[in-house]
Amino acid sequence: MTTSVDAERTITVTVNGVPRQATVPVRRLLSDALRHDLGLTGTHVGCEHGVCGACTVLVDGAPVRSCLLLAVQVDGASVTTVEGLAREDQQGGQVLHPVQEAFRECHALQCGFCTPGFLVTIAAGLEARDADGPITDEEVEEIVGGNLCRCTGYANIKKAVHHADAAMRDAR
Amino acid sequence: MTTKLFGEPVRRREDARLITGRGRYLDDIGAGALAAAFVRSPHAHARITGIDVDAALDVEGLVAIYTYEDLTGPLAEPLPVLIPHPQLHAPRTGYPLANGEVNHVGEPVVMVVATDRYVAEDACDRIVVSYEELPAVVGVDAARAAEHAVHEEIPGNVAARHHQETGDVEPALAASPHTLSFTQYIERSACMPLEGKGVHARWDPDDSSLRVHTSTQASTSVRAAIAAKLELSLDAVEVVAPDVGGGFGVKIVHPWPEELLVPMAAIALGREVKWAEDRREHFISSAHERQQRQEITVGYDDEGRVTALDVHIWHDNGAYTPYGIIVPIVTATQLVGPYDLPVYRVVVESVYTNTVIVTPYRGAGRPQGCYAMERTMDRIADALGLDRAVVRERNLIRPDQFPYDHRLTFQDGRPVIYDSGDYPGLLTKLKDLVGWDAVEERRRDAERRGKLLGAGMALYVEGTGPGPYEGGHVQVLGSGKVLVSTGLTSQGQGHETVFAQIVASELGVPIEDVEVTTGDTRRFGYAVGTFASRAAVMSGNAVALAARGVRAKALRIAADALEVDPQDLEIDEGVVQVKGTPGASIPLRTVAVLSNPLRYAFDEAARQATQFAGPADDSRPPVAEGDAPGLEHRDYYSPVRSTFASGAHAAVVEIDPATWEIDVVTYAVVHDCGNVVNPMIVEGQVHGGVAQGVGGALYERMAYDADGQLQNASFMDFLMPYASEVPDVVIDHQETPSPLNPLGIKGAGEAGVIPGTAAIASALEDATGRRIAAMPLSPTQLYDLVRDETTERTAQAARRTGVPA
């Protein structure tokens, strides 16, 4: 049996910790569903074929290119976007993720369009890191090496990863 | 005094929203808008013989289809030539939708509007356009050969012949002790901002007004273009540049067809309409830059001093010339760099090809000019057996020669007169920074590791901050908030931060109280745009002048209230106070309330202000003649001519002779943009520019085939540098303030990209001993070059090996 491109499915996804439902055409890309159906426009689309990494989100904690995934494929999964990186403190204020803090401190963004993809990729990379010592330059390049930025020349992005790594190790 | 924020690495105020996903880029706007998509030409050159839309009509969700036949009035005319020039003798522009002929792959033919983008593209797929193919002209050499014409009525394909000369070049060459001639090429790249273009339009039928958001570098001019082309009153059109995801030049072109067509559809349909460019569209229907063929003849003496320079360039301008001949003029006039050239003649022939239009990409012709001049210096050094730094040093303009008149006419029609600089200083710093005198040692070390090492350098002077003007408006509110607006736009340069730094410093207020708006015609109607490293120079000085106006008015009002002389007052941390007399003070926010004689007590500030209001003088009007209510000031900065920033880059490359992989192991930058407003942001601009320079030298190339099909129109195939490709950059600064503007600043936006290709070509030549005359250069091309027996060897290589070339 074939499914028409117009066929719709209702999916349930936990987005940034909140269960959300959306009825989407089966051909809807995850990136478009997040941006246009759920209104989470922090995730950006730069190339539509998985090369630039601007649309990266975390699916069950792992970075994926949301322009290469259909929305129906994440039915039942947990998705984290850039909007979900910061957490609320007890007074209802916003506590930035160390990677967000580091990006501001190190001037790791200019136009900011690629930034959400970098932020979630680096956050996942640093959280998955099991070594105790400071992160090495090679590890940093491995984490950021799959995302394109046209503004910064990457120097300050790499600096921000070191900065965030230090902050996250201090907090442990 | 308030801590001066000018010159400090203040953290960016725009970041708070951008790092939390709360930025507002074009496609984040208009959640309920209809979506536009385009049928674009699949052919580089063809006549349209028919458009059949029947199969699209039953696509559910289709709202409208537009072809050229649907355009009326000025919209049916060719798009404007923005910058006409007497030497642009055969300008041509396209139509918003193709009118019977297409001249490059990607030219828009049909616009479809539907309920969402998926549906709009479904409809596009079903529209059948029939074409009669015509021969395509691809590449600068084919255009020059002119076997075929891009535009039938321009048989030689030449749009413009730009010519400048500063003396009689032929006798000067004839009298030169030495001459050499060579030809070299540089290829096409493109801006490639991570966010493509995009337009959203909303028509309000109740008051017949149009609000357009567009990802542009020039919102005020887009507004004027829309008003003219859609026959609307200017005051019925608002144009806003929201957060813009990078520009680098491509978004200064206007109006793009979509900037007219999307508003047209929004008005016709009475619905919000949006178009967000996809990446393939950006490759094939926005703009590229850089391809030139350069024929150079130079005369020089035994010491390596240039006696005459004669340059003939063929510049590929693509299918149309909407942006005039700005890129050719910039190449022609910026080519001379930091050098004192006795006689210079340049001819740039700007030629049509059946490819995407060529308009400024960061550097805007300067990288090509730098490549021509700096490779000439390398050739002279090679021929004479001199150090490349020594030859450059001998030709530099000396610090005591400023202002230095090149006797050329710049892109703004003004003379190329360098305002200030210290070029020998740059060169000295560069040699120290890169370790120029230790290169031979590094070469031997690399040889021991089986690598070929080479070094190269390139110097440039960049005309920055061209006019005609920018404006600024500063207003202090009763809340103490300081609103700043300027018309030019931002694409990531941190304008909200640097303009706030300038105003906070000038006015004496905490930066937290300052809010900056850019690129919104609702706030500021007159502007030129963000390009040519001009924002800090132009709007920076404009907002400084506006802030000084506010300051003067505030001191006058406060002086009245405190019954002192304005000259005895200062403003510190938002409080006007008598110098040296603690207690005699009045908050600036109170002065703002006092500035308006109508003072309804809506808030605490207004209530407080009454204590300072003096007794009314019944013989005078409440608003004095020549005065105005409100603590605000609008001012404009209009320079007599451009400022000239400068810099010097050096690259050291290592080549693996097994794979011919090229590794840039050292990249050094000495940068001079006059007084620096925010060193953190300037360094960021340099880093980003260098990355694009390295990309342009080693990776990026628009691969058109002979039929005019772009073979690498995706990020998978067009190789933009990732973090792994960009070298670590070491930076040193020099500051020669500009005497031309109140803040003494020059510009910094484009600088980083300019000398990359020249410096890396020089380093590759130094490493391999093979003449490098075409850039960019991939490992495969380098391998082919080295193994080709006919490749010219440098004299330096022969000297090194003892084998004559």
Report what the structure shows.
The complex is a heterodimer of chains A (172) and B (805). Chain A has helices at 30-37, 98-105, 115-127, 137-144, 155-171, and strands at 8-15, 18-25, 56-59, 62-65, 78-80, 87-88, 94-95. With 172 residues, chain A is an alpha+beta fold. Chain A has two domains: 8-84, Beta-grasp domain (Ubiquitin-like (UB roll), Roll), CATH 3.10.20; 87-171, [2Fe-2S]-binding domain (DNA polymerase, domain 1, Orthogonal Bundle). Chain B contains 20 helices and 29 strands. In chain B, helix 8 runs parallel beside helix 9 (366-384) and helix 17 (679-698) packs across helix 18 (756-768). Chain B is globular and about 95 Å long. The interface between A and B is large, with 58 and 58 residues.
The helicity of chain B comes to 25-40%
Largest sheet, spatial ordering of strands of chain B = 3-5-1-12-9-10-11
Distance N to C terminus of chain A: 52 Å
How would you name the CATH homologous superfamily of the largest domain in chain A? Answer: [2Fe-2S]-binding domain
Structural class of chain A: alpha+beta
Could you state the order of secondary-structure elements of chain A as H and E?
Answer: EEHEEEEEHHHH
CATH architecture of the largest domain in chain B: 2-Layer Sandwich
Poorly predicted regions of chain B are none
How many alpha or pi helices of chain A? 5
What shape does the CA trace of chain B take? globular
Number of domains of chain A: 2
Biggest β-sheet of chain B, characterized?
7 strands, mixed
Task: Give the helix level of chain A as a range of percent.
Answer: 25-40%
